[in-house]
Known about the structure:
By secondary structure, the chain is mainly α. It has one domain (10-90). It contains two helices and no strands. It has helices at 10-32, 38-90. Helix 1 (10-32) runs antiparallel to helix 2. It is elongated, with a radius of gyration of 25 Å. InterPro entries: YiaA-like (IPR038972), YiaAB (IPR008024). This is YiaAB two helix domain-containing protein. The chain crosses the membrane at residues 12-31, 43-62. One of its GO terms (biological process) is DNA damage response.
Amino acid sequence: MPNFTSKPSNAWNLFTYFNFAVAALMMAGGIWSLEASFSAKGYYAMAALMLVYSTASITKAVRDQEENNRIYNKIEDAKTERLLAEVSAQDPA
């Protein structure tokens, strides 16, 4: 069974970094130009930072779970192949 994993291109990585920078600048500009008290602006800024952090955390958790499942499946496939090899070696027919 071939193990094919695609690798993201440098252009895609640059695009995602650019999108993040634009979104962060837009959020910061929006918070700064908001007609609210300094404490309200601080609350929104902290909420925006926590949203970014939690997004990165959940992305990492999902990726780690996928990698864990992939390794578990490889182990299970190896066990199955070994069992089939043992059974076929014992089969007198």
